[in-house]
Design a protein that fits this description.
409 residues, alpha/beta, two-stranded antiparallel sheet, 37% helix
Length: 409
Amino acid sequence: MTICLKNMSIITLCALLIVNLNGVFLTQNGFRENNFFNVDPEVFMNSTQLITSKGYPCENHYVETKDGFILNMQRIPHGRTGTNQKGEKPVVMLQHGLLGSSSNFLDNPASESLAYILADAGVDVWLGNVRGNVYSRAHKHLKPSDEKFWEWSYDEMAKYDLPAMVDRILSVTGKRQIYYVGHSQGTMIGFSGFSQNKQLGSKIKLFIALAPVATVGHIESPVKYLAPYAKYLDLFADLFGKYEFLPHTDISTFLGSKLCDKIGLDVVCENIFFIIGGFNKKAMNVSRVQVYAAHNPAGTSVQNMEHFAQGVNHDKFQMYDYGTQDANMAHYGQVTPPQYHVAEMETPVVLFSGSHDFLADPTDVNWLAPQLKNMRAHHVIPEWEHLDFIFATDAPQKCYNKIKSLILS
């Protein structure tokens, strides 16, 4: 992560230089588009626009959690060919990973993006957005400028966000069970939420875990270099927003549109993704890098990043450590954070992992798999890294067609 942040600082400086050279300048309302040539229009689209621009229907649902957050979900109720499907339609929830959003399942062409592929196959597709990302920055009483708005990690996502979104889907569709597909952090909140809340787990017909994450003690990503300094993250909060980490801003859109299509700088953009998740250049659609960079990162809390760093330090799948025995006792009634016991999860699960994954490291995945008493299958894709599960050009052949078969069988 240290390497990544340094690179991001360099890119930002380059951005300012290019702003001056090209006559593109900041206004109070964002970037003025004076010289945006050869820019993919999807750089400037949100998830709803990405969906409708390709001819798919889209509904926006706003879900309130028990602790007051308002989460924005997108729904693709059917494919481009209409609603003439016979029989009952399966329903699936797609849940993004750390620093991601629903756009992670929409950023490739329709023939390569999981959300569109499933919708065209006759599946009712729902896209989740957890608290704090670009689509879920609302609360009944708090504002993002309030420190308390950001006092959460993936613990609260599993405890509050996940059941709220699942229950909304069941309420609207009238289903008793849905399919759940998570990527990275989306799997982590699944493993923690479904193991702790058996009633919630019973509402999932099958949990499909892409780049599965529980323990993170063996990651190879530069994120691990941040871990020893986790307790100092709050000192840098002003760099990322008040208790917010890498929010989605106009800078993200600008970087994607003005830098990531430039010869030389396009390689920098590609390598930022590789540095974080692993190297597999063969599977990356270089023409889409500016779209990926424009939509990512989508924001989270500093506390959530600190929680991940704690996982690297302790190599345990446990709740957030508040730093002192007294603080943990006040929150948990014990001096150490409770651990998540994935062995208690009864929800059936299928794993998809990559051998070159820097974040869902094979060593950590090999610890996780035997813990799962209701694991139906484990598919290992030898050459894949962490982001291939959402961005790879060969994803339909190596992964998505299998997911489609699991859901439609």
